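User: Hi! I'm a student and our assignment asks us to look at how structure tokens line up with a sequence. Could you show me two examples?

Assistant: Happy to help. In each example below, the sequence comes first and the structure tokens follow. Example one:
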Amino acid sequence: MITSKDNEQIKFIQKLQTKKHRDLTQSFMIYGEHVIQEAIKQGFELDIYTTNPDHPGTQITESLMKLVSLTETPMMDLAIVKKKEASPYTNRILMLDDVQDPGNLGTLIRSAVGFGFTTIIASNNSADFYNDKTIRATQGNLFYANLIRTDLKSEIESLKKDGYTIFATALHQKAIDIKSIQVPEKAVLVLGNEGAGVSKEILDLSDYCVFIKTKDIESLNVAMAGSIIMYEWQV
């Protein structure tokens, strides 16, 4: 059993609370038995730590679990998970242009997995896929997604060469109602920043701009809007 906060493994877990160390070590942290089981099911490499002697993993004290937990009420189990290499792209892709809120990002990952947009490409300025709030919002669906972070401009140019049609959400007059779109086999849905929307640079690269018809409100939360469109466009 680990009992000291000066233990190297405990220090490593604490460092994973920062994006810098998650990127550096290609590792991230998850909490709770359900999420750990989802990671195991999808073949992720992980090290488990627990306060419950009946659970698998390295035992640590409850005080140490409280020290390394980011939630108000600590779970009995946590795990350090190794990130996986990117997989081949699916025909439906979700692209995120500077989505800032980890909760929105996590909700979008959850919806994307549910509606078949399991390749998710985020700009370099989007929230971190492996932020604790993002992971919790995915409800374990993070492990079913192909997560890529890259420069969107060059990625869109590459996707177009590979036969993808790019649809970006926008509110201007040239935008088309999502229900009027005949979605091609290979399609990319681009969602934008919570305040600014999709950047002009990305809009200019897109093949079509689309919107969701609403009554009495100008726009929807990005996670809600993305979920609605992915539901409508699922194969």
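Example two works the same way, sequence first and then tokens:
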Amino acid sequence: MCVQNVNAESLELARSRYQAGRVAFENGQYREAVENLEKASALLSGNSRFGGEVQIWLVTAYEAAGRTEDAIALCEQLKRHPYSETSKQARHLLYILKAPKLKRPSEWMTEIPDLGKLPENESQVRISVKPRPATSTKKPEPEFVDLSQVNTKDNRFIWLALIVIGLILGYLVWLNV
């Protein structure tokens, strides 16, 4: 009875660590995600379905945290997992992790400035927004177009289209007589 209590407690603790790890991962806190998922994995049997799921998440957290070698090593172990879905996912992840890294052209990248390097008093971003008037009843003023900039040359296509439409309408009227 005491063994079941300990197992139930460790399972519950593992679930809470697993959830905390997933939340941290989804929030971009990869180091914290790795810590929580490693602790959850240590509390579970690696051959169980839930243990495999935790380890798959741990693989992705390792990769996101820049620990690619650890991710590959864990994937190699998980390829032989008794639960087929886990081993299938491990093989797919291993394929992705071992794929050659492509270089991206610099013009595809956007550099994000490190705001942590700003002095304390400049760390707050000031945004000035012009307040919009509350649903005004004024109509917007018409925008005037400079006709000297507009191509007013005769377009023969329009005349051709009008003649064709006229002929079609005349033919339809003649058919109905």
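Here is something you could point out in your write-up. The helical segments are 2-26, 30-43, 49-64, 68-78, 84-98, 156-176.
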